[in-house]
Design brief:
71 residues, alpha+beta, 3-stranded antiparallel beta sheet, 3 strands, globular
Length: 71
């Protein structure tokens, strides 16, 4: 597990991983990324073009992880 903090919204490195992982992710591969309480709204537009995705909720029923799969 790696924690990433960057930029004003704290998502600069997370966005880079999402944008560039399409070049490294195998067709049947998945990426699991831990996200903050309201990050799903910010990241959904970036993700939807290249990935199928789903969220996993934490014990408090907050979207905490996003799973990315290539389209």
């Amino acid at each position: 597990t790696i924690a990433l903090i960057s930029g004003k919204d704290g998502l600069n490195l997370t966005k880079k991983i999402i944008q560039n992982s399409i070049y490294f992710l195998k067709s049947d591969g998945e990426i699991f990324i831990e996200i903050g309480k309201s990050d799903e709204n910010i990241l959904s537009a970036l993700i939807s073009e290249k990935y199928n995705y789903s969220f996993i909720k934490d014990n408090n029923q907050i979207d905490r992880y996003i799973i990315l799969k290539r389209k």
